[in-house]
From TrEMBL:
<dbReference type="InterPro" id="IPR006626">
    <property type="entry name" value="PbH1"/>
</dbReference>
<dbReference type="InterPro" id="IPR012334">
    <property type="entry name" value="Pectin_lyas_fold"/>
</dbReference>
<feature type="domain" description="Right handed beta helix">
    <location>
        <begin position="158"/>
        <end position="253"/>
    </location>
</feature>
<dbReference type="Pfam" id="PF13229">
    <property type="entry name" value="Beta_helix"/>
</dbReference>
<keyword id="KW-1133">Transmembrane helix</keyword>
<dbReference type="InterPro" id="IPR011050">
    <property type="entry name" value="Pectin_lyase_fold/virulence"/>
</dbReference>
<keyword id="KW-0812">Transmembrane</keyword>
<keyword id="KW-0472">Membrane</keyword>
<protein>
    <recommendedName>
        <fullName>Right handed beta helix domain-containing protein</fullName>
    </recommendedName>
</protein>
<dbReference type="InterPro" id="IPR039448">
    <property type="entry name" value="Beta_helix"/>
</dbReference>
<feature type="transmembrane region" description="Helical">
    <location>
        <begin position="418"/>
        <end position="439"/>
    </location>
</feature>
């Protein structure tokens, strides 16, 4: 079928007949040259049996009219899976000639549907040895494999990829080894901003080095699945732990909140019917995640500033095996609890620290500027081994908005975000048992600038 009979400039791809759809979409891209726009029809599902590959610079795949809600076309991953391998990727923009390709205003349904993970790529694979790509207003969810969206490094030459205004998740299961990332980013000089990440289970945003990358104004939260880490800066490969020029700022990370009506006089603590939390809000350094598996490897030279944490966590920000980091002006907003206890995956050789807002393994962090809130611990290894409480009134109430609205792309609306950061939050409560404590801090955004603690 020729392109002219399949698609006109003012039309969109007909999903029927579906038995030729995957081939027709790929033929449109690989036969049409640079700058071609592959338009999908609004309110339409496209059932694909193999990845759709960008083929030339400047190509775009998008929904006609650029809707941002449920009207976006849906690419549904439906190819075969056998013995744990098979079709996992809907869109692939990693070709050797894929500079400037754009994925915009579509949805990708990975259709894991509770199954075990399938070996393969992410729902969306972008980057590679390319520059200036754009992923925006995309809803990616339920990946069969390890991530909802992966931007790959190629031969370490990926650069200037922008990931913005997307709504990502849910991604994976919180059962052991069935997790999936929200955004997995491994590209120099990128931008990851204004994304909503709902219920990823491994890392919300995982930075694989990615020197020069800006991560800002993202909102990450859990509802019914525990997440291992909100934002992760723990991977040594492929950039040898180099986070030079990486700035993680102005992000909002929300752990679990109480789901029952208030039962105590102050209405502060309740139970969560899913027993969910975020184990580490922001994790820095390989040992926080992998323990001593990678020896003396470190994360180096990133900046983490002005990020907000709210809800239930094991640890707010944890740093170990790192040097030359700047971590300043990060704060707790609304009601926040630090809960959990060592689980069966904890190494008996490690002394797993009690949950706390800001943790530093002081003996393994050098040349870094840390806000004064950090508490030193003797052992910051493998902190994701903790498990959430299985019962009890240990989750904070949100005192208002618990989660941003779902179903729309873009940054959390100003009014909703303001509800989370405005208002007086009373004092600091003492520890309430060996496995958890609660914090209410009087902090308004921008009003407190902790003095620095320099680790040499």
């Amino acid at each position: 079928m020729s392109r002219s009979t399949m698609l006109s400039r003012d039309d969109c791809v007909n999903p029927n007949p579906d038995n030729t759809l995957t081939d027709r979409l790929n033929t449109a891209l690989n036969s049409s040259g640079p700058g071609y726009v592959l338009s999908l029809c609004p309110n339409t599902e496209y059932i694909i049996l193999a990845p759709i590959h960008f083929a030339f610079p400047g190509q775009e795949m998008s929904t006609l009219g650029y809707p941002t809600g449920e009207a976006r076309a849906v690419l549904t991953v439906q190819g075969p899976v056998r013995n744990g391998t098979g079709h996992t990727t809907a869109v692939d923009g990693t070709c050797a000639n894929c500079d400037g390709v754009r994925l915009r205003n579509i949805q990708v349904n990975g259709t894991r549907k509770g199954a075990s993970p399938t070996t393969g790529g992410a729902n969306i694979e972008m980057g590679g040895s390319n520059a200036n790509q754009l992923i925006e207003y995309v809803h990616s969810f339920d990946p069969r494999s390890w991530s909802c969206l992966h931007v790959a490094e190629g031969s370490l030459s990926c650069t200037n990829v922008t990931v913005q205004n997307n709504d990502i998740g849910p991604c994976g299961s919180d059962m052991s080894k069935q997790w999936a990332d929200g955004i997995s980013f491994s590209c120099r000089n990128g931008v990851v901003r204004n994304n909503l990440l709902n219920n990823p289970t491994d890392g919300g945003i995982v930075l694989f080095g990615s020197p020069g990358t800006l991560v800002e104004n993202n909102t990450i939260w859990v509802e019914n699945r525990t997440m291992l880490g909100g934002i992760n800066m723990v991977d040594h490969e492929p950039f040898n732990g180099d986070y030079t020029g990486v700035i993680v700022r102005d992000n909002l990370i929300m752990g679990g909140f109480a789901t029952n009506p208030p039962t105590t006089e102050d209405g502060y603590l309740g139970y969560n019917k899913y027993n969910v939390m975020i184990k580490i809000g922001i994790a820095i350094g390989p040992r926080t995640w992998f323990g001593d598996e990678f020896g003396a490897n470190v994360s180096m030279s990133g900046t983490v500033e002005n990020n907000e944490l709210s809800g239930a966590f094991g640890y707010g920000i944890a740093i170990s095996s790192a040097r030359n980091f700047t971590i300043q002006k990060n704060f707790l907003t609304r009601n926040t609890a630090f809960i959990g206890s060592p689980g069966p995956k904890c190494n008996p050789k490690d002394t797993t620290p009690s949950p706390m807002p800001f943790l530093v393994d002081q003996s393994l962090v050098n040349g870094s500027s840390l806000q004064v809130d950090f508490q030193p611990v003797a052992d910051g290894n493998a902190l994701t081994c903790i498990i959430p409480p299985q019962s009890g009134d240990q989750w904070p109430y949100s005192n208002g908005t618990t989660t941003p609205p779902t179903g729309n792309s873009g940054q959390l609306p100003v009014g909703s975000r303001a509800l989370l950061i405005v208002g007086v939050i009373l004092g600091v409560l003492a520890a309430m048992g060996a496995t958890w404590f609660v914090v209410k801090w009087r902090r308004r955004k921008g009003t407190r600038s902790p003095s620095s603690s320099h680790l040499k």
